[in-house]
Amino acid sequence: MPVAKGFSFVLVTVVMVMMLVFGLLSLSSAGADLRLSQKAATAQQVYYELDTQGEQLTAACGGASAGAWSDAGCFISQRRYEQALPADFYECLRPLAAKAKVASSAEALAKLKSGVFYYFLEKRLKAMTFDAGFTCLVNQELLQNALGGHGSGHLATVNSTVKSSLDPKTTLSITLACDFTGSGVPAFEATRWQTSVSGLEISSDSSIKVWNGL
């Protein structure tokens, strides 16, 4: 039966070709799944790497804040405002120091301590070593307004852009701000915590730290 044998051969060939095609499709799909899972794993590693660096920066700024508050306390307790003030001492604080020297009222000393805190804070922030892109600023005009009981805005800000070692195109941009708290050590809070890939912003929040994933 030559016709039957020929049909069987064609049928077997078609089946084998279909199996080969489905096998290649399955292999291609498996490869795509593997690449996707690897990309997701890398993204997760980048997320934790940048988030950790951001937290380390925040903690370092918190440490600088605590140290500056201690420095300000020593400045008041040791009555250093009665001595010659440093050349780089904030101009807006000199009248407060002179007033405290003449009449050391609790209110005057408390206000002077709050202002001196930012003087020492700037020194401590500038002494910290971070990658390029780290900047800090104390706005003396806003500080003067705050000491006068009016004005608004962040008195001290820290900006930093951290790059991932796993994916240099992915960065974390951080802005931390420090203001008067009314009591205790003035604390830094995140006002921006956003990620970007190749300049494309993919996560942003205007008030708190937030991660939407990579």
Describe the structure.
With 214 residues, the chain is of the alpha+beta class. The protein has one domain. The chain has 4 helices and 5 strands. It has helices at residues 2-77, 94-102, 106-127, 140-147; strands at residues 135-138, 156-163, 170-178, 188-197, 200-203. A hairpin with a 2-residue loop joins strand 4 and strand 5. Helix 1 packs across helix 3 (106-127) and helix 2 packs antiparallel against helix 3 (106-127).
Kindly summarize this structure in a few lines.
With 214 residues, the protein is an alpha+beta fold. It has four helices and five strands, in the order H-H-H-E-H-E-E-E-E. The chain has helices at 2-77, 94-102, 106-127, 140-147, and strands at residues 135-138, 156-163, 170-178, 188-197, 200-203.
Shape: rod-shaped
Give the strand content. Answer: 15-25%
Number of domains: 1
From the alpha-carbon coordinates, what is the Rg to the nearest angstrom? 31 Å
Distance between the termini: 65 Å
The tally of helices reads 4
* Sheet with the most strands, sense and barrel status: 5 strands, antiparallel
Strand order of the largest sheet: 1-2-3-4-5
Order of helices and strands: HHHEHEEEE
Mean pLDDT equals 80
Number of DSSP-assigned strands: 5
Roughly what percent helix?
40-55%
Class by SSE composition: alpha+beta
**Regions with little confidence, pLDDT below 50 for 5+ residues:** 200-214
